[in-house]
Amino acid sequence: MEINIIDIAKNAKNAFLKTMDLKSEIKNQALENIAKKLTLREEKIFEANEKDLNNAEKLLSEGKINKAVFDRLKFDKTKMKSLIQGLYDLIKLDDPVNKILFERELDEDLILKKISTPIGVIGVIFEARPDCLIQIASLIIKSGNCAILKGGFEAMNTNKAFFEVLNEALNEIDGFPKNVINLVFSREDIQKILDLDEYISLIIPRGSNKLVKFIKENTKIPVLGHASGICHIFIDESADLDHTKEIVIDAKTQYPSACNAVETILIHKNYPHIDELKKALIETGIKIIEKPSSYSVEYGDKILSLKIVNSLDGAIEHINKYGSGHTDSILSNNNKNIEKFMNLVDSSSVFSNCSTRFSDGFRYGFGAEVGISTNKTHARGPVGLCGLTIYKYKLYGKNQTVKPYATGEKKFSHKDISV
Amino acid sequence: MEINIIDIAKNAKNAFLKTMDLKSEIKNQALENIAKKLTLREEKIFEANEKDLNNAEKLLSEGKINKAVFDRLKFDKTKMKSLIQGLYDLIKLDDPVNKILFERELDEDLILKKISTPIGVIGVIFEARPDCLIQIASLIIKSGNCAILKGGFEAMNTNKAFFEVLNEALNEIDGFPKNVINLVFSREDIQKILDLDEYISLIIPRGSNKLVKFIKENTKIPVLGHASGICHIFIDESADLDHTKEIVIDAKTQYPSACNAVETILIHKNYPHIDELKKALIETGIKIIEKPSSYSVEYGDKILSLKIVNSLDGAIEHINKYGSGHTDSILSNNNKNIEKFMNLVDSSSVFSNCSTRFSDGFRYGFGAEVGISTNKTHARGPVGLCGLTIYKYKLYGKNQTVKPYATGEKKFSHKDISV
Q: Does A77 contact B at CB distance below 8 Å?
C-alpha cells in the first residue's frame, strides 16, 4: 500500500523537529555509513541501473526520450567512485548549523544571539541522473534538513536501489531519526509537492531548464535554481586578441552544455581584432550567429551569438535585458570599465578577464554545491551548504519586561560581543 | 492620463540599474531632503490627512471601516516628529550595500569577492497608516532598491501629499534617478503587482493579518512578512511566581495588539503556582480561555489562551503545531530545559526568561525595521536594512581559463583573505 504524500510530508516535518538539533557526529556517521553501504551494495545498484538502461534503450528507439537523457542515466564504477569521494569530502566540511552569526548585549543580562539553523522540509525534483539522489540527500543530511525527493521515472530502478541502500545505512545509526529522506515516484507527485507549501519550505529542482521553468511557474514555495544560463562575455576595445580567443573558446567549448558556458559575445565596435577573433572562433568549430532572435537562446552547444555594441553602456544594457542573471564576464584592460561593468551588470556572478566557466560552487571553494541560483532573495549564484540554512534569534534574559524600556526608565546598550 | 502599471514596473526596473550603484552620500542627501521638505510642507500634509479623516468618519458611521483603521489613519505633529527623527536615524546607519562579505583567492591573480547588493524592484502594499509611505520609501532608498507602493484607499489624500513631497525632495538631488519610488492607487493594482514577477523581486505587505494572508496566497513573488503572531510563553516547573506574573502581564498587556504580544501560556503540570498565577492575571483584567479552539487565535486583546502541559516536550510540540513561528519564550531556572526549548522550538525568535515583546528590530539594535518575517528563507525574525539586500559574486581574473583546472594541470588555492 502506497503512503499518501501528505502523510509523507507530515512525517518529514516531524522528523525535522529532530534533525534540526542533530549532533554533527551523528550526521557525519550517517554520511560515512552511506559511503560504506554504497561500496558494499554496488552490484545491486549496477544491476538496477542495467534494468533502467535496458528500458531506456527501448524508450530511446521509440523516440520517447532523447540521447542526452539516456547518457545521463548510466551509473558506472567511475561515477560510484566520485559519488563516494563526494561523501567523504562532505563529512570534512564544517557543520553549517548552529553557528553564531552575531552576538549582542541588548542590556545587562539580556543577550541576543543570531544562530544558523536548517530550513525545514525541502522538496527536490530531479530528472534522469540517478546519482543526484545520494548527492542531494547527503547535503540535506549534513545541513539538518529533511527532504521529499522525486526522481525521474527513467531512473526508477536505480533510484529505488539507492534509496534502499540509503535507508539501510541510516537505520543503522543510533539516534538518526526516521523519515528524514523520503522518495516518491509518480509523475503526479510533482504537482502535489509543489502544492504542499504548508509543509515544504524550499524546492530544489535539478534538471533541464524546462523542468525548472515548469516548477517556478507552478508553485508558491521558494525555488532555488536557475531556469536558464544565458551568459555573456563583453570584449572591450582594450582587450587583447590572444587572451580573448583563449577565454571565449574555453567559455564556449570546454563544456558547451554547462549552464555557465558563454552564449553571447558582445564586442565593442572599436575593438581592433573583430575579424581575426571571428575567424579564430570559426576555425575551432564554433558556429557564429549574428541575429537578434538568438540573443535569448541557450544553445548548450558550440554555437555563439555575436553582437557589435557601441559602448560599454550598450553591453551592460544588453546583458541586463537578455541575460539570465547567471554569469557575465568583461575582458578589458581598463579598470574603470571593469568596475562599472561589475557594478552595473545585475547578475549573480560578474567576472573580469576570465572564463564564465569558473562560476561553480566547487571552484568558488564551497566544498559542496547545492546548485546555482539566479534568485534575488535568499541565495544567489553558486550555492553551498549554507544556502540550505537560515537563522533564528535566541534571546537570553533575566526576567526583563519591555515596559521600563518603553517608558524610558531603562535604555538598551546594544553592545556587540565579538564571537 | 494614468500610466499603465507594467510601464511603471519597467521604469522602476530601469531605475534600479542606477540605484544599485548609487553613492551613499546621494542616498543620504535624498533622505535629508525628504526630512526637510516634510517640515516645510507639513501643513499641506495635515490638510490632506484632515480630508481623509473626514471621509473616514463617514465610512466609519456607515460601518464600511472599523475603529482601528480610523485610528491608524490620523497623522499629527507627534507622528511627524517621530517620522522625521526616523529619517535622521536612518541616515546615520551604515549603507547596507557594497559591503565585502568575504574575499577569497581561488588561485594567483584570481580573486573572488562576495559583495552585498540591493535586490531590485520591491512591491509594498500597505493599509491605513499613511506614515508607512515615507518610512518604507526611505528604507528602499537607503538600501538602493526601487519600489512600487500601493497605499490604502482610506489614506489616499495623505498618501498623495506625502508622495508629492517625496518627489519634490528627490527631484532636487543631483544624480538621484527618476522613477525610484512609484505610487499606485487603485484596488485592482494589488493583484497586478502580485502578478508582476518578471519585474518585482520581493513583496512587503504592511497591514492586517488578513492582507498578508491574501498576498501570500496570491503571488509567486517572495513575500517578506508574517500572517499571524501566535506567540507563546511556556512556564516550566522551576519558574518562580513573581517574575512569571510580571513577564506574562508585560507580554500580554503592554501593547495587546502587537504581533509579538503573547497569545497562549503553556504551564507545566508540576508548576506549583498555577492557581495564584491565574488569579493574578485575571485581576489585571486578562480574560483566560482554556479551550483548544482558541489555540490558533490571535486575539490581539487582553485575552490569553491557557493550557496545562505534561512536559517540556509537550510544550515544544504544542508550539510547533499551533504557533506561527514568530516568537516564543520559556520561563525556567533549568538551563538544560532552556537550551532544549530554544533549540527545538522552530520559531524565528526564541527567548528565555523575558517578555515576547522584545522581538523587534529596534530593540534588537538594527536601527530600522523592515518588518518581522516568519519565512524560512531569505530573512527571518525582525528584519533590518540588510533584509533588503542580497549579494553578487565578483571574480577578478588575469586571463584564466577553466581548462587547466579541469585537467589537473593547475590547482585552486582557495585561501581566504581577511576583510
A: no
| ipTM confidence score | 0.95
Find the mean pLDDT for residues A373-402: 97
Q: Does A214 touch chain B (CB under 8 A)?
A: no
Return the CATH number at B320. 3.40.309.10
Residue B371 lies in a domain: no
Expressed as residue numbers, the domain containing B285 is 231-358
- Count of Cβ atoms closer than 10 Å to residue A168 Cβ: 14
Residues of A in Cβ contact (< 8 Å) with B104: 364-365
Residue B263 has pLDDT above 60, yes or no: yes
A293 touches chain B (CB under 8 A): no
Q: Is residue B363 within 8 angstroms of chain A, CB to CB?
A: yes
Alpha-helical runs (H) found in B41-97: 42-61, 67-73, 77-92
Residue B328, domain member (yes or no) = yes
Check whether residue A53 and residue A168 sit in a common domain.
Answer: yes
Which residue among B201, B250, B381 places its CB closest to the CB of A402?
A: B250
CA distance B50 to chain A (A): 29
Neighbours of B80 (CB within 10 A): 18
How far is B194 from A39, CA to CA, in rounded Å?
50
**Total domain count for chain B?**
2
Angle among Cα A134, A135, A136 to the nearest 5 degrees reads: 95
Instruction: For residue range B193-205, list pLDDT tens digits in order.
Output: 999 999 999 999 9
- List the single residue in B349, B396, B398 with the smallest CB-CB distance to A392: B349
Strands, DSSP E only, in B175-228? 181-184, 200-206
- For residue A368, pLDDT beyond 80: yes
pLDDT beyond 60 at A1: no
- How far off is chain A from B183, nearest CA to CA, in Å? 22
What predicted TM-score, i.e. pTM, was given to this entire model? 0.95
Would you call A106 an interface residue with chain B, using a CB distance cutoff of 8 Å? yes
CB of A350 within 8 Å of a chain B CB? The answer is yes
